[in-house]
Amino acid sequence: MAWSGDPLWLADVLRAEGLKVIEHDGWKFRGHGDFGNVIGVLCHHTAGGGENDWRIVQNGRSDLPGPLAQLVLERDGTYRVIAAGVCWHAGRGSWNGWPTNNANYSVIGIEAVNSGTGSQPWPAVQLDAYKRGCAAILRRIGRGSGDCVAHREYSSEGKIDPWGIDMNAFRRDVQTIIDRKGDAPMSAAEVKQIQDFVKGFVGPIGSDVKDIREQLCGLGQRDAGGYKGWPQLNGATLVDAVAEVLKRLDALEAKDCPVINIPGFPDKAA
Ligand SMILES: [Zn+2]
């Protein structure tokens, strides 16, 4: 299995998906050791439901030292990036392609703030961010939505989280987002390629592009506020002038005027 190391790209990937992100101090150095390879996302709820849930995820409990997950998803859709290293969240369980009873070293945990008792319906903005966050991570690691798993699906310890989310429907939506290639962030090389391409169209006076533009539209420069048209054509552009010529030829043709039979010039009716 390829080694990819800690997901130090987490915050960037989430932001590139258009999500709100809070990077907690020291997150890149927080964890219970280093990842070998990241192969999926495990979805949880915090079982709290309040604005301080993240503290337990970061600091742990008396029986379990933090961090307990790499990410906390707030009810307003904001992601808190807690840790880049391994976290204690998966427990015992199994899933196709994942290490049995040992997923912490292979998957990223997202703790979504929710009471988990049914007392807190998932806000649309949080659910949307949940799917987009999972999709962004899976796209980054080259995996499909089949590696986006509920803790209750992986766990052999009777977990129920995340409460109330139909994971098959969730995965369908996640896959749709993964497949939205146009939403993928552009690399620096791709940005430069586009910038260079655009520069070609706003080149200096005398550039090929400017010459072509003026041949079509008349003397002037777009940068100077527009084209003046061609003085030889009474200020018309080349296209407008040709259109006017054709109109007049049609008018002459309607009168059976022989003057339009120009040798070598294709007849309109031919
Ligand atoms: Zn859980």
TrEMBL record:
InterPro entries in UniProt: Amidase/PGRP_sf, Amidase_domain
Xref: Pfam families: Amidase_2
Family matches, as SMART domains: Ami_2 (SM00644)
SUPFAM superfamilies: N-acetylmuramoyl-L-alanine amidase-like
GO aspect biological process, one term: peptidoglycan catabolic process
GO molecular function, one term: N-acetylmuramoyl-L-alanine amidase activity
Coiled-coil positions: none
Domain (N-acetylmuramoyl-L-alanine amidase): residue spans on this chain: 26-163
The name this protein goes by in its record: N-acetylmuramoyl-L-alanine amidase
Organism encoding this protein: Nocardia flavorosea
